[in-house]
Amino acid sequence: MVELRILATVAGVALVTVTLLSAIRTFVLPRAAPVRISRAVFLMIRQVMEAIAPPSGPYERRDRVLAMLSPLALLTMPVVWLVLILAGFTGIWFGAGVDHLDQALAHSSASLTTLGFASPANTPEVLIATTEAVIGLGLVALLISYLPTIYAAFSRRERNVALLETAADSPPSPLALITRYHRIRGLDRLEELYQSWIPWFADVEESHTSIAALVFFRSPEPQRSWVTAVGCILDSAALTDSTLDIPRSPEPQLCLRTGFMALRRIAATFALPNPSDPSPGDPISITREEYDALCDQLAQAGVPLKPDREQAWRDFAGWRVNYDEVLRRLAGLCAAPVAMWSSDRMVPYHPPPLFVRRMRTS
Question: 305 by DSSP, 3-state: which?
Answer without folding.
Answer: strand
